[in-house]
């Protein structure tokens, strides 16, 4: 039986992080990579859809917090699972992201397996 892969949108300005995550998740997901929040919004506005989104906090053009706000303002994306990655463990940034609509927040460096489990958990909750 053939099942379609879910689409995972990864937003990070660090090419190495994008490459690692693409390699790690490619067997389970259709992975789409963008370098900043504005590129990601442009991709979504073109009619594409993501089943889950992983976004960096510190990015040029449109940072993670502004991306969350812009994403959650769009009715079609108000409930798409969104996990944030950040190089800082600053509590105020974590709280700001979670209040703005992020579903989870991981600090870099992180274990891709932990990220995978968190994505699976949030996807299981929204598909019920």
Q: What is the overall number of helices?
A: 5
What is the H/E order?
EHEHEHEHEH
Low-pLDDT segments: none
Strand content: 15-25%
In helices, the fraction of residues equals 40-55%
Give the strand order, joined by hyphens, for the main sheet.
2-1-3-4-5
The rounded Rg comes to 13 Å
Determine the CATH topology.
Answer: Rossmann fold
What's the β-strand tally? Answer: 5
CATH architecture: 3-Layer(aba) Sandwich
| Biggest sheet overview | 5 strands, parallel
Give a quick summary of the entry.
This protein is an alpha/beta fold. It is built from 5 helices and 5 strands; from the N terminus they run E-H-E-H-E-H-E-H-E-H. 42% of the residues lie in helices and 20% in strands.
Describe the structure.
The structure is a single chain. This protein is an alpha/beta fold and 128 residues long. It has a single domain (6-126), classed as Rossmann fold. The protein is built from 5 helices and 5 strands. The protein has helices spanning 15-25, 37-45, 64-72, 91-100, 112-126, and strands at 6-11, 29-34, 52-56, 82-86, 104-107. Strands 2-1-3-4-5 form a 5-stranded parallel β-sheet, with helices on both faces. β4 (82-86), α4 (91-100) and β5 (104-107) form a beta-alpha-beta unit.
